[in-house]
Fold each of these.
Amino acid sequence: MKTAFLSLVAIFVFNIFGLYFGWYLDYFWFDMTLHFLGGFFMAIFLSIYLKDHLLDNSKLKNTLIILGVVSFVGVTWEFAEYIANQTLIEPFYKYFGVKSYFMGDLADTVNDLTLDMLGAASFAWLHLLRRGKTAIKN
């Protein structure tokens, strides 16, 4: 759990650096990578955090719960980006001299949420492979 949490903190820090140094504009893959890894490590974190609340013999339900919570976190993040885009652009430039933006258009938002889910689904798939299973069974 500690590693997953520290990975999420690192992703957040990379996000801050990406905004400051303009990596989102310079490297098209930067945002994509952070969203995929964010979904992956959030799924790890949640699977450990919710371990006592997940069902013992219901891999499909547990996977859907984790994917659902990761989706909720991703949607919440996108709302936070929207609010930041509406309120923080001017202060960032005024006080820090940084011209930034916090979100793209609808296509960017859908892409971000898709990558969050692909990261979480990749964790689920790798977790099942590690256990010697090739398919999620209920």
Amino acid sequence: MRRIRKGDEVIVIAGRDKGKRGTVLRRVDDTHLVVEGINVVKKHVRPNPMKGQTGGIVDKSMPIDQSNVMLFNPATGKGDRVGVRTLEDGRKVRVFKSNGEMVNA
């Protein structure tokens, strides 16, 4: 079970954007994810008249390693580690390590 999923709110703990919060837009592979407003770079784009695309410089969110982010815990207001707990009915749920509350995503 993945500890960080699409739609989760995360906080950056290392790198150029340390301290910023954002929502996970998508997972690129097992270790990288794209977070809204994090690791934004200027990308030079060539015009493509076949697709109706204009050229210029655009802002693009690039992938960040999942080891540089933590799931944001609204109860504590900080980043928190995540564990997996099995409920009585057999379902697996993600829980915060600090207070044991379930992650509502």
Amino acid sequence: MSIGEQEVLHAARLAELAVEEAELPRLVAQLGSIVAYVEQLGELPADETAAPHLAGAPAAPLRDDTVRRGLPPASLESLTAEFRDGFFLVPVRGTMAGG
């Protein structure tokens, strides 16, 4: 697809942008290069056999599912204001009160 001055002016009108006559050649070149870049996407395979592009590693390594001892309750007591029978106690707020 070729981008010319008329296409740039039309897009500018749709976006309600004022375009100076001196800016027009630069805008035509910039928009043309954007469209040319996007046209390259049409060259990529897009059928069911094409692998999707996903950012990051293809698979996350999993760790062994092993049971480990937790911290002893006595060491947890220093982390909270209230601790009883191995549980952190939190204040009841608003809708949590349950009537």
